[in-house]
C-alpha cells in the first residue's frame, strides 16, 4: 500500500503537482525572458530566472519550439481567463476592456518572434493561430458587448477587427524606440467611446 505524503497526498500525486508547478514557473520565466530578449534567448537565462536546472526545462520541453509553443498557449490562456475576471472586478466594462487590451498588447509583445521560431513547423503555427482566435475572440466580444450595453462605447465594433487593428499598431515597436503603440491604441479606444452629452 502506498504511503501518504504531505496533506494526505500520495507521493506520485505530490510529484505530479511539483512537476506541474515547475512547468508553470518555467513558462512564466520564459515569457518574461522572451519579452526582454526575444525567443532566441539562451535556455540558461530562462533556467536562472525560473530557479531551476536546465535539465528540468529540457524534461518538460525537449526543443525550443516546444517551449515557445507552450509559452504561447500559456499566454493565450492567461489572457482568456483575465477577461471575465476583469469584467467582474473593474469599475466599469470600459475599464475592464482597457485593462484587457493592455494584457493583450503584453501578449503580442511576448508573441514577437514566434513565427521565426516555428518556421520549420508551419502546421504547428497554423494550429496555434486558430487556437488564439478560438480562445480570445469570444473574450474580446464579451468585453465589447458589456461596454456597449453600459453605453460606454458605440455598438457594432467587431472583435476580430479590433484585435487585428491592435496587432497592426504593435508592428514595428521593437525597431523604433520613438514609437509607442499604446498611445495610438489609447486613441483608438477613445474613438470607440460614445460622446457624453451634458
Key words describing this protein structure:
single chain; 198 residues; mainly alpha; 0% strand
Terminal Cα separation, in Å? 74 Å
Could you give the order of the helices and strands? HHHHHHHHH
* Low-pLDDT residue intervals, each spanning 5 or more residues: 1-5
- Largest pleated sheet: none
Task: Report the structural category.
Answer: mainly alpha
The averaged pLDDT comes out at: 86
C-alpha Rg (nearest Å): 20 Å
Which percent range fits the helix content? over 70%
Total beta strands: 0
- Helical stretch count? 9
Principal-axis shape equals globular
The proportion of strand residues reads: under 5%
Quick recap:
The protein is mainly α and 198 residues long.
Could you describe the 3D structure shown?
This protein is mainly alpha-helical and 198 residues long. Helices cover 72% and strands 0% of the residues. The chain is globular and about 60 Å long. The model is unreliable at 1-5 (pLDDT under 50).
Layout of helices and strands:
Blueprint: H1 11-37, H2 43-50, H3 54-60, H4 64-89, H5 93-111, H6 114-117, H7 122-149, H8 159-170, H9 181-192
Helix pairs in contact: 1-2, 1-4, 4-5, 4-7, 5-7
